[in-house]
Every structure is written in structure tokens, then in C-alpha cells.
Amino acid sequence: MGPLDSYLPYLLNRAGARIASAFGEEMRPLGASLQIWRVLAALREKDGRRMGDLSRVTSIEVSTLTRLVDNMEKSGLVERRRDAEDARAVALHVTAAGKRLTRRILPIAERYEAVALEGFTPAEAEVLKQALRRLYGNMDELER
Fold first, then answer.
1. What is the DSSP string of the chain?
2. Taking a C-beta distance cutoff of 8 angstroms, is the pair 52, 62 a contact?
3. Distances (CA, A) of 82 to 89, 93, 142
């Protein structure tokens, strides 16, 4: 085992890139992408999110997210509406077509998670997820 194979950022990137690449290939025939799925999944969790919140939850930069949402709106997957609580703010809502696409992608996403966690006990899987969330949060230190 070389030094690269024990370097955490390399291992994380390698695992993430492999999953993202395969998942992206499977999304293409559906007219979707990993980023579209992230937006749809975030809206499935909580519809009517504002762009800033959506950017934070999906880890997609606001400028990239704006272009992505523009295209998703043209495709009829989402629509922007004035926020009910703050008329100056815009909230993003999933459409019926977006919900249909979400229902098609959900079992694929669940299969990817099951394959990635093959051989892990439920407790190990939870420890891994908690560790990754903590690791992500630790990176805030570099932005201070």
C-alpha cells in the first residue's frame, strides 16, 4: 500500500467519484444528472426551499445552481414562486413532472446506497455517515 492509498482526501474522492460517475451514467437516459437528483431529493425532503438553502443542502454553488434550476424550470421539473412568508424571496417548488422523475430515480439512488454499504452492518453504516458529516463540518475551519 502506497502513501496515496492511505491519504484520506484521495480515498474520499475516489469513492465519491466512482459512485457519482456510475450514477450519472444511469441518470442520462432519464434526462437527469446527479445535480438534478440532488435538487429533486432536497425538494422531496422539503418543498419550497429558497436558493441559498438549496445551495447549502445540495453543496452546489449558487451560480451553478441558478443555471441548473433555470434548465430544470424550462424542462418543467420545478417552478419558482414568491415565498409565502417573504414576498421578496423566491422559493423553488417541484412540479408533477419533477415528482414523477423523483419517483423513477429514488429506487436507483436506494440501490446505489445498498451497493455502497454492502457488507456493512447498520451500525457501521451509521458510524460511517456520522463520521463523513463530521469530517465535512470540520472543513469549515479552512474557510475561517
1. --SGGG-HHHHHHHHHHHHHHHHHHHHGGGT--HHHHHHHHHHHHSSSEEHHHHHHHHT--HHHHHHHHHHHHHTTSEEEEE-SS-TTSEEEEE-HHHHHHHHHHHHHHHHHHHHHTTT--HHHHHHHHHHHHHHHHHGGGGG-
2. yes
3. 6, 10, 35
Does the predicted model carry a pTM greater than 0.85? yes
Express each pLDDT in 2-43 by its tens digit.
688 889 999 999 999 999 999 999 999 999 999 999 999 999
- Looking at 1.10.10.10, 3.40.50.300, 1.20.210.10, 3.60.40.10, the CATH number of the domain 4-115 comes to 1.10.10.10
